[in-house]
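Reopening this ticket.

The earlier resolution said the output was attached, but the attachment link was broken on my side. Pasting everything inline this time so it's all in one place.
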Amino acid sequence: VLLVDDQELVRMGTALTLDTADDIEVVGNAGTGEEAIGRTRELKPDVVIMDVRMPGIGGIEATRIITTAHPTTKVLVLTTFDIDEYAFGGLDAGASAFLLKSTPPDRLREAVRTVHSGEAVVEPRITRQLIDHYASGRSPLGRSRSSENTDALSQLSPRERDVFGCMVAGLSNSEIGETLHLSPATVKSHVNRIFAKLHLRDRVHAVILGHELRGR
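Inline output:
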């Protein structure tokens, strides 16, 4: 994990929180967006924990640059502010998670594991607002609905469409398996093919796309 925050005490506190876990290693830290980009290129971390408000390049733009240049690196946005534009902007930039700095230590550690495994983590309040915005026919990410994604959706097999529908409904892999009577390995295989065909980074972007297409 690479820690990015302009406050050294915050970086130290987060490092102490994560270092208590045997399966998580903090490999470096950065105090600005520019440093984050350089350190990611140098260290190739699995997960970047990104602050939003920093001098120079902010966390949202740094996230966009990192996720574009390093598709396998997951970004978890961790901020004091729960303002919608930060959450939506971070997700649109390619972040796989959005959490507040008030998040309990055990939940932060679990979030790191979750995004590393390809899942997504978003504050419940933000998730509800995403759904509310799409229900009203507006895109909180400010993007136009893509006909390219609609065409790609038609390339999914009937079973992949079933799995995609379950993902959009918020079901976990185990819940999808129970619902569709599929093994965990089969569900994971379908999910990976859906990501590849629809050019999605993770589940939160699958949910966003699903609600975009539902509003077409």
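Reporter confirms the inline version is readable. The first strand starts at residue 2 and ends at 4. The chain is about 55% helix and 10% strand.
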